[in-house]
Amino acid sequence: MALESRTVASLVKSWGVAFFLIMWFVGQWFRASKQISDAEQLSSIQADVAAIREAVAQGAEPPALPAIPEPIADPIANTLYAEARAAMEAGLTHSALLTAGVALEHSLRRFAEAHDIYETKKLPMSRLLDRLRIVLKPSVLEELTALWRVRNAVAHVRDEQFVEPQRARALLDSFGWAIRFLSEANPSPSALAA
After folding, report:
1. How confident is the model over 44-70, as pLDDT tens digits?
2. Residue (of 167, 184, 98, 108) closest to 141 by Cα position
3. Which residue, 83, 64, 67, is CA-closest to 175?
4. Of the candidates 88, 87, 85, which has an alpha carbon nearest to the alpha carbon of residue 72?
5. Which of 105-109, 120-124, 125-129 has the highest mean predicted lDDT (pLDDT)?
6. Helices (H) and strands (E) in the chain — how many of each?
7. CB–CB of 133/193 below 8 Å?
8. Could you give the CA distance from residue 88 to residue 123 in angstroms, rounded to a whole number?
């Protein structure tokens, strides 16, 4: 084929075939490397499972369960907090704190409704907490606001292991305190604003 007989169309056709073959080869290369990576990860998981089986076979004692706290007055908050405690006991720290955060939000909104704060379902939590100033002592409101900020940090974190297990348990207990306080039918007058 002479150089004069080559057209733009034949050049594009030749380039298209070559491009397709190159991309097919690159795709095969990445597929093979992913399969190798998956195989390595699978062997790592199998080794971890074997270590767990070995620990169970040796009769490792399960950790002692903490005392079961008294039930929370609000049945929805009680169920959510019980699920959070169960998740914590199962080692699902992030899930436990997220569930406790949901229970906290539910309890805050119910508490606000019980104290005639309107539009509680539509208000952002920061405004709802601000409106609770007329009902709660500043120290209690500060604790609830701090817990809400922690809840936001837990909900928006990328690394699920950002909280150490002991601190996570303490944080779960703090959520429990707040949920119990907010769920009481008649909170103690000492915690309410005068």
Report:
1. 787 777 777 777 777 655 455 455 567
2. 108
3. 83
4. 85
5. 105-109
6. 6, 0
7. yes
8. 30
Residue 158 backbone phi and psi in degrees, to 5 = -90, -35
Q: Which of 55, 5, 178, 186 is nearest to 108 (CA)?
A: 178
What are the pLDDT digits (tens) for 144-193?
888 888 888 887 776 655 667 778 888 888 888 888 888 874 454 555 55
CA dihedral 79, 83, 84, 85 (to 10 degrees): 100
Identity at 34, one-letter amino acid code: K
For the chain, how far is it from start to end, CA to CA, in angstroms?
Answer: 98
pTM: 0.60
* Chain centroid to CA 14: 53
Alpha-carbon distances, residue 107 vs 6, 77, 104 (angstroms): 77, 7, 5
Task: Tell me how far apart the alpha carbons of residues 95 and 98 are, in angstroms, rounded to a whole number.
Answer: 5
